[in-house]
Design a protein that fits this description.
284 residues; alpha+beta; 4-stranded antiparallel β-sheet; single chain
Length: 284
């Protein structure tokens, strides 16, 4: 039965490629900064998408899942020329709209405390510093489009070729709020993926009549893709819960240390007081 096995393997490989760009979810604590590095091939370019949402204590799981899914759909509906849009694809459900409104009323502003900075790691020969900083808003996409093209234009204006400059990119997300955690949905989209998906879309438009086997394969790919997305989401949730548990354990540990220290101090004070009392009463 080599035919069905090859067909199954092909569908799984295609599904894994479709799930490569599923968004990540990062948590930035109060007043802290999180950074990561990434590279872009010489013959490629990339778009970056960020959406700032409240911490898991201030947002429902359904709302968090909806925003992650919208970023996934937003990056999938992209163009090689225009890049990634700045608005979500689907209309916001009423319950999520209500939760968002309540949060905005509690914060009294839609400006988020997170600023995102994209910078280029310069080479030793040409230490040019390219930085692009943007202030974000809650629940709205922040897009860095055509990263390589933009940085190349900056280096060209200063008299250097882009290949002398690019040794990778660095993204830093700074939470300027000292009292509130935030979560950031992150997605990196390569232009090569855009070209391949547009070619696939054009190919499917030409094939108007699909055989039952092709229709079944397409349905299986969609179902497997949905399962992988759910698995990715559960993995992200597990990471968030693990970080929360580690934070709680650290606080409990320090509280135990403090309790032991207070107990020792109180014991010392009591023993010292009793010794002085007995000496004063000449009982010792």
């Amino acid at each position: 039965m080599p035919g069905p096995i090859l067909l199954l393997l092909g569908s799984l490989l295609l599904t894994m490629r479709l799930a490569e760009s599923y968004p990540m979810l990062a948590q930035v604590d109060e007043g802290e900064e999180r950074c990561f590095n990434f590279n872009i091939p010489e013959d490629d370019d990339a778009h970056l998408v960020f959406v700032v949402i409240p911490s898991e204590d201030d947002i429902e799981d359904s709302e968090e899942s909806w925003y992650i899914d919208q970023v996934f759909k937003l990056t999938k509906k992209k163009s090689e020329k225009t890049g990634v849009g700045g608005r979500f694809i689907d209309k916001m459900p009423d319950n999520i709209s209500k939760q968002q409104k309540e949060f905005m009323e509690s914060t009294e502003t839609n400006e988020s405390p997170v600023s995102i900075e994209l910078s280029v790691n310069p080479s030793t020969e040409h230490p040019i510093k390219y930085k692009n900083r943007q202030q974000t808003k809650y629940f709205l996409p922040t897009v860095f489009g055509h990263v390589r093209k933009t940085s190349a234009s900056h280096s060209h204006n200063q008299g250097f070729h882009v290949n002398n400059l690019l040794r990778g990119y660095r993204i830093c997300m700074l939470n300027n709020d000292q009292d509130r955690q935030v979560q950031i949905i992150i997605d990196v989209v390569m232009m090569s993926q855009t070209s391949q998906e547009e070619e696939k879309a054009a190919g499917f438009e030409k094939e108007k009549h699909l055989t039952p086997l092709e229709q079944s394969l397409d349905q299986n790919i969609a179902a497997a893709n949905k399962v992988l997305r759910e698995m990715k989401y559960m993995e992200q949730r597990e990471y968030g819960m693990r970080m929360t548990a580690e934070s709680i354990n650290a606080r409990v540990r320090w509280f135990s240390y403090l309790s032991v220290a207070v107990l020792l101090v109180v014991t010392y004070v009591q023993v010292t007081y009793l010794k002085r009392y007995f000496h004063k009463k000449k009982l010792m």
